[in-house]
Every structure is written in C-alpha cells, then in structure tokens.
Amino acid sequence: MTVSIDIGEMAGNARAQMDLEELLATRLLVQGNSGSGKSHLLRRLLEQSAKWVQQAIIDPEGDFVTLADHYGHVVVDAVGTEKDLQMIAARVRQHRVSVVLNLEGLDADRQMKAAAAFLDGLFEADRELWYPMLVIVDEAQLFAPAVAGEVTEEARRRSLGAMTNLMCRGRKRGLAGVIATQRLAKLAKNVAAEASNFLMGRTFLDIDMARAADLLGMERRQAEAFRNLDRGHFIALGPALSRRPIPVKIGPVETSGRGGSPKLMPLPEQPKEEAKDLIFTPSEGEAVPVRQRFSEPKVSTEDVLSRLSNAEDVAAADVPQAENLFDVGDREEKIDVILSEILEDPEAAFQPIASLYQDFQVRCRIAKLTGGAPDLQRFRERLSVARAGVEKGDIDESEWKQAELIAGELPDDMRGVYLLLAKAALAKAPCPGNLEIATAYGTRSPGRGRWLLSHMEERGFLVCATDLRGNRIVTLTDLGWQTAPGDEAAA
C-alpha cells in the first residue's frame, strides 16, 4: 500500500505529493533561515501524516504543543530525571502514542541532555516494538552541532550520539528522522549526510547556499536562487519527493504555533511623567528582590557582665527534683519551649554549642525544670532537630516514627537535616535549598549544606538526583521516600 501526503503546490498548480513509506526509509532534511517557513512546513507534514504514522516531535520552543488539541498528541514536558524520560519514551513506543517533547524553558545544555535521553529511550526499545515512527527534530543544529559551543562537552557528546543513532541506525528500528535547521554549516555533517530527501528554503549566506546546491545536485551559479525564495517556498529533491529539484509552495495548516511573527502595532499614548512613573514605581504584586546581609552579632561588654550576673543569681535558686524516675511531668514540653525561645533569635542558629548550652542551662533553672537541665550530649541531639525547624504538624504519626527511629541512629549533626528532608518527602514538598540545610546544620555557608548532603549520600543515608530543569530530588534510602524537585539555590 502506497500512502502519499499532500504538502503543497508545484509549478502549474500541480499538487506536491510525498511518498510516506519512502520517507520512512530515506529520511528528510529541511533547511532555511529564520522566517523562511520551516516550522510551517513541519506542521503541514505532521498534520497530513498524523492519521497514518506515529509521531514524536523534539520541540525546543514549545511551538508544536498545539497539535495535542486537534490530533491527540500527548505533550511530554521535560520534568523529572533523564531516567524518567527514557522510561516515558519506552512507553511511547509500546503504546504507539504520538507525543511532543516540550523543552521550552530549559537552557541549551539541559535541552541537549533531555533530547538525548528521550531519543535513547526510543532507540533502545525492544525489537517487537519497532513500529514505524516519524521523529521530527526542530532546530536540529542545537542537538547536533558541527562544532563545540558554550554547552558542556558531555551534553554535546550525548546529544550528537543520539542524533547520529537516529539518522544512521534508526531506519531498522522503524525511526525515520526529519530534521530542520537554520544553517547547514552549523549542523554536523555525519547527521545531515544520512538524509536522502531535501527541502531547501530561503538562505543568504554563501556557505549555506553552496552546501544546499551541492546536496540538490545543482551548479554553484544556481545557488543564488535560494536568496530569492519567498516565505513558505522550498526546493524539493529526493526519492520521496522528486527525482529532480522542483519548487514547492507549502500548503495551509489547521493549527498554529504559540509564537509566530510579531505584528507591528502603535505604542500607547501617555504623558512623559506617567511613563516615568510606570518605569520607576513598583506595580502592585510585583516581586521585590530581597538582599540578605549577614553580620556578626554585636554583644557589648555590659551585656556579657549582665548575663554572667544573672546566671549566678539563678544558679542559687532551688530547682525542684523529681521524687522518682517516672515523675517528669511536662519536662519534654518545657524543653521544647526553651529551645524554641533560644532559636527565636536569628543569630542563635549560628552560635557555638557551648554558648547556647550555657544559655539553655540558665533558662532551665529559671523555668525550674524538673530533674535539672539535660546533659550536653542530649542538648546537642535536641538542638540539631530544633535548628531544622521540624514540626510534625499533620504528618502521619506512624510514618513519622519510622523517620525518628532512623534519625536516632545518625550522628548528631545529621539528625536534624535528615528529619528536615524526611518531612519534605512525606509532605511531597520541594527539596530544601542549600541555605536552609546549612541553617539546620548551624552554618551560613550554602556550600557546607551541599557538602553535608554529599557526605550523607556517600554514607548511604540518601541519594541525590537532579531533574532536567536543574532542580534537586532527594531520596531517603531506608524509608523509600522522595522529595519533590526543589531549587538548591533557593533562599
């Protein structure tokens, strides 16, 4: 069965037909400068072939997500880890669902890693799942660059390897690559060379015109024709299109992208003074950047002497003793209240243990705590949890007891941080940032907070992972709990 799709008009009002089965076997390369109509061409191709073949679109700008409303494509946002994307890609092949991988909002490095993970998942599917699929990659020069750019070498190597697999080895696995690029000179040659069908649009640089002419078998003097092409006009060649170069005008589409070309419109009329107010006056609800300045606490000599004097007076007071070991009354609650009062001072979280313990002893005597103040070791344990600001709240009591039991086996300095992460995981809240972890650890340095997580990971207490948007996910190994993605740089 031969399936042909209509992509537009040729000379003499004849219809330009593309053999879909031949396209699946021979792949397609689309080239044209920005504004030449590449996205329009890809959308026409996708719409015309949607009912005949499964599709997967690698979309760096989120332009093709509108296909979901009309043709049933599932939009896959690049969230989670790379392993998550690979598993989603495997399910895409298994259930034969057309998808749009939306990479909008990611920087170039993470876009390359996400695309590589997804393409690897498609490529590594089991043999019984090798059904025909069109894999459209828009702005392919981003994922298969000819030379190293500003992205990391690891990201470039992985992305280029995935694109090479798609174009060179994908045919036997049912994957037909359709790649679009603004400039042939920026696209890796081993990726471009595997396409046998070409649609060349408007381009102006001599090097790109020369390469386009070579690919189409045209003479160098004919390359000037690419400068004169109108928007939406291409020159086509290939076994799925035509045996000789022919001009094609791409037909209309039913859906539209979220971007599009900007339209000119007049500026709003307003007096100069009002315009200045709009610029220099914060609007309602506008986020105002906060600059945090940390300074060492300044304690006068008079304050120190006053504290020492008060401590001596309180030490002389009678502290009631328990009649037996079980007569503790509300002792634990009082200790919690005293610790919270100490930590109400923002600088208390960063003071030495010895100073805090002295203050704690004084407050215990003032409160006439039954049985006297706990020893220094017990104080360290309670302080580490109090510093983390962990409160049970609405958390399930039985599950929280598991976290407390495991935390009890950890070193003192890790206990509060572990419970902080446990509460976030149990509540499905974002992972705390480095600064919050550092504060629970008793330091102002976010680097120390990051180091503590690495140290806890080395000892097997947790596993840190980074999702495709650069947010951190922490899994507590003994509990099997996982936090939601969180920005490690969050204040």
UniProtKB/TrEMBL annotation:
Position of the signal peptide: none
Species name: Roseibium limicola
Any Pfam family matching the protein: DUF87
Keywords associated with the record: ATP-binding, Nucleotide-binding
InterPro entries in the cross-refs: ATPase_Atu1862_pred, HerA-like, HerA_central, P-loop_NTPase
Key word Transmembrane present: no
Entry keyword annotation includes Membrane: no
Ranges of residues in domain Helicase HerA central: 5-73
GO molecular function, one term: ATP binding
Taxonomic lineage: Bacteria, Pseudomonadati, Pseudomonadota, Alphaproteobacteria, Hyphomicrobiales
Name by which UniProt lists this protein: ATP-binding protein
